Amino acid sequence: MTHTQLEYLLSVDTYRHFATAAEKCFVTQPTLSMQIQKLEEELGVQVFDRSRVPVRPTELGKEVIAQARVAVAEFKKIEELVKVQRDGITGELRIGVIPTLAPYLVPLFITSFIQKYPKVHVTIQESVTGDIVENLRLELLDVGLLVTPLNDKTIVEVPLFYEAFVGYMHPSHTLAKLETITAEAIDPADLWLLNDGHCFRSQVLQLCNRTKGIRNVHLDYESGSLETLKRIVETQRGMTLLPELSVLDLSEEKKGMVRPFADPQPLREVSLVVHRSFLKKRLIEALRDEIVAHVPVGLKERNPVRVVKIK
Question: What CATH number belongs to 162-260?
Fold first, then answer.
C-alpha cells in the first residue's frame, strides 16, 4: 500500500469516475485503474462497485476510504508544516460561503486578507450548506463559512459571531408602527421567504413556529436572494426577515423599514467550519483572525442567549 495508491483511491471517490480521477491526478486512466486494483488485491477487498454509473464505493469500501482520508491528511500535514516554516503562509485557500452570508461578510475582510497574505490565492464559492459540507469531506473545499450548529460529527465548527434577525417591512405594514417586533406578532401570510435549501429559510420557519412553507394570498414568490426579498417587500408590501449584516449598508430611508426583535433577540451563529481531518491549519487560522477583526464589534460581543436552530 502506497501513498500514491491512496491518493488515487480518494480521487475516484471524489469524482466517481475513473477517467476524471486520472485527469485530476495527472496520470493515464490505465495507470490509475491498475494501481487501485493492486491496492484492492493487497487488501483482499473490493473498494469500488464498478458495475454502477457513476462508480460508487462498496459498504466496506466506504470505511476504507474514510481511513484513507485520515492517513493522507496526516501525511500532508508533514508537508504543510515544513512549507509554512520555509515559505510562510502561502498556497490556495478554497472557501465555501452560503448565499445569505457571502455578499455581506466577504467584502468586510477579503481585501485586507489578500493584502496581508499576497502569496495566497483565494477561491470563493457560494453554495448551500449541504453542498459545502460534502465538498469539505471530498477535499474540494478547505473551509466553509456557515450558520451552525449543524450537529455533524464529520466537521469542526468554530463560532465567529452571532448575527441578529431583523424584520424588513413595507412602511404600510401594521408592525411598522412598532419600535420592536416579536415572532408571535408576525402574520405568516405577510411573510416573504427564501426558497428550499437555504438554512436561513429553515431558521425563519422555526422562529415563526412553522414547519412548512407559507402561502401568500395573492402571490407566491420564494427567492434564492435576500436582495430580491427586499425588493419584493418594497414593491408588494408585506415583510420578510433578514440577517443583521444584510441591512447595515442600507440608505437611511430603507433603514426606516427595519425593525429589531424585542430582547432576547433571536440570533444565528456564524461559524468557520472545516472537516475533522482538515489541512492548512495556519492559513485557516489567519482567515479566522481576519474575519473576526473586521466584523462589527456588537456581533462579536453578543451573548448568544437565543440562537435559532436549523432543522
Answer: 3.40.190.10
Fold match between 3-85 and 162-260?
Answer: no
Residue 45, strand partner residues: none
What's the fold here for domain 88-161+268-300?
Answer: D-Maltodextrin-Binding Protein; domain 2 (3.40.190)
The residues near 64 (Cβ < 8 Å, ≥ 6 apart) are 9, 43, 45, 47, 57
What kind of fold does domain 3-85 have according to CATH?
A: Arc Repressor Mutant, subunit A (1.10.10)
> How far is residue 124's CA from residue 258's CA, in Å, rounded to a whole number?
30
Q: What is the pLDDT of residues 53-81, one digit of tens each?
A: 888 999 999 999 988 888 888 787 777 77
The 10s digit of each residue's pLDDT in 125-161 is 999 999 999 999 888 899 999 999 998 888 999 999 9
What pTM did the predictor assign? 0.76
Question: What residue segments make up the domains of the chain, in order of their start?
Answer: 3-85, 88-161+268-300, 162-260
CA distance 273 to 95: 10
